[in-house]
Backbone:
């Protein structure tokens, strides 16, 4: 099936001189085969879609995928925070990308749970996604002490449960090229284990 990174527009964006990337991006294996070059491309790229596209949760999910594959901590943390600020983007509403590449699809299927964890930790602290950007101390305290019954937590979309785990473990190196040997390593991310992807636990929580 074809990737849905463009939402309702089925036209795949062609590479442009000012740095917009072709979507969907390469598979994890392809990215890692030229990791330094790809990381440099990410640093140069404009991350919003071209003029004739609007940004979408799926566009953002693919950007998050790219940054995690190359273990660009600043890039993936900024992307998580950006997604969080899009108040209408409920995690459960992220559409199924129906990605044709098994490794990329399995990787993408792990990301909603990662976002859910990051956002729900904030919600527990009263840092809800629809809170005003600027609040008085009184407003902040009201959000912090709000009863648990009033809080709406994020949920995963149902499509993530239908994605098949990889038959062969996908080993993902750290930013400096270090691989873990197995899932028993305490540094391995539990968000990716069920898809047979061995990746270093990302730093996803922010305030």
Residues:
């Amino acid at each position: 099936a074809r990737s849905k990174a463009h939402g309702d527009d089925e036209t795949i964006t062609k590479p442009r001189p000012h740095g917009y990337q072709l979507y969907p991006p390469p598979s994890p294996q392809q990215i890692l085969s030229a990791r330094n070059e790809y990381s440099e491309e990410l640093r140069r790229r404009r991350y919003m879609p071209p003029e004739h596209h609007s940004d979408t949760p799926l566009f953002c999910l693919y950007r998050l995928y790219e940054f995690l594959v190359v273990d660009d901590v600043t890039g993936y943390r900024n992307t998580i925070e950006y997604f969080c600020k899009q108040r209408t983007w409920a995690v459960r509403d992220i559409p199924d990308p129906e990605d044709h590449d098994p490794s990329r699809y399995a990787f993408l299927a792990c990301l909603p749970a990662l976002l859910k964890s990051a956002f729900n930790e904030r919600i527990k602290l009263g840092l809800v996604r629809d809170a005003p950007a600027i609040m008085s101390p009184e407003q902040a305290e009201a959000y912090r002490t709000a009863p648990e019954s009033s809080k709406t937590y994020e949920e995963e979309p149902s499509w993530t449960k239908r994605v098949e785990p990889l038959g062969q473990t996908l080993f993902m190196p750290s930013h400096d090229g270090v691989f873990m040997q197995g899932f028993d390593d305490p540094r391995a991310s539990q968000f990716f284990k069920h898809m047979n992807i061995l990746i270093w636990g990302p730093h996803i929580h922010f305030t």
About this structure: The chain has seven helices and two strands. Residues 126 and 147 are 10 Å apart (CA to CA). Residues 6-18 have pLDDT under 50 and may be disordered.
